[in-house]
Design brief:
Elements (H helix, E strand, L loop, with lengths): L8 E6 L3 H10 L8 E6 L7 H9 L4 E6 L10 H18 L7 E5 L5 H18 L10 H16 L1 H15 L10 H27 L2 E2 H8 L3 H13 L3 E7 L2 E6 L5
Parallel strand pairs: 1-2, 1-3, 3-4
Antiparallel strand pairs: 5-7, 6-7
Helix pairs in contact: 1-4, 2-5, 3-7, 5-7, 6-7, 8-9
The structure holds FE2/S2 (inorganic) cluster.
FE2/S2 (inorganic) cluster binds next to α3.
Length: about 260
Amino acid sequence: MPRSFEPEIVGFLCNWCSYAGADLAGVSRISYPANLKVIRVMCSGRVDPVMVLEAFLNQADGVLVLGCHLGECHYISGNYQAERKIKMTRKLLQKIGINPNRLHLDWISAAEGERFAKLAEWFTSQVRKLGPLGSSEELKENELKERLVAARQTVENEKVRWMVGKERELMEMGNVYGERVSQNLLDFLMDKNLFDEFVKNRIYLLLEKRALSVKDIARKLGLSPREVLRRIAKMEDRGLIAMTDVEGWSPRYKALKLSE
Ligand code: FES
């Protein structure tokens, strides 16, 4: 990493508390790192995981999400939603080989100008230590981009979004049969969904570029041919991909254009 590396950090700050806290730091002349580019949002709960992944795709080395303290959200439960969304996004980053410490969620009130500056300083130094996005992860630019694109598609998936949105309700009120679902079970299901969806998206993106056999895909993604074959069969059934030709003894597949 070059010695002069200065990270690009995107900060999503909720209008009612954290942005006011940052403003207070400014009027109180408390300095904070210029690395942080602030984007004002109405509530931390409005920070969609897609926005976080877009920030990483657009050269951010770290993303900071700040909201009102729990129990103080202007929209009552927005920061609880933010907690679940960011937890899921950190989990996904970890799964795709990106250090989850590049994404941080915290709470800052309108009166905490000094705390805001300290937090911005701490997060900047943490990301500075990690280096440019992809460096501590040892990912080449193309590989990094492909993983982030597949991750963005993953968080757009309806099932993943439904699970994030329903997590609290399922734990506190239960499912349609009134059975409460444990945190462990929800975490397990979320892990599985995230991984399945991410791998499916990676396969699709590879097959959009050119026709490949199961063995080729398995080699590129570091998976077993058996695992890939199972997914290929499902994707073929769903009309996402089709067999194009046979190379030697191996059928090759290509992505089909999806209608909008
Ligand atoms: S308004 Fe600040 S977190 Fe919701």
